[in-house]
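Before relying on records like the one below, remember that each one covers exactly one chain. Contacts with other chains, cofactors or solvent are not represented anywhere in the record.
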Amino acid sequence: MERTSLSHPFPPVYDGFSRILILGSFPSAASREMNFYYGHKQNRFWPLMARLYGEPVPQTVEERRRFALAHGIALWDSIASCTIIGSSDLSIRDAVPNKISELLHAAPIERVYCNGKTSHSCYEKYVYPETRLHAEALPSTSPANAAWSMDRLASAWSVILA
């Protein structure tokens, strides 16, 4: 596959009640096609959120948006643009961070969690020095992170409920 230069195709999800920010790295090809976060059918993000909050798995983009906002969750990605091969975080080059500090001023975010190492590395390098708001790295919900079972993910991600 060829490396492609891309810009983030959709806006963050947040409102005046968003207390938790969950940052991915950059949208997968499936998410870019769906035009929403965690769109790959094998990504465990939405089933994991449903499990943590004891609700049915949201299916449509609108259901997912409502689910996040109903639980005070803001969604965005650490990277605004990059060159990438397919959906591989390992292939990301020339990353330009999103203006996360602007979102932190627009919403009452209290805690930041990064879905995977790439997102956390970008946040720590570009955002933390500006905001001084710590972000916790959580294991990726990507199907590429097959070493983590749903039970292990649920245990690690349960920190968002605190």
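The longest strand covers residues 79-84.
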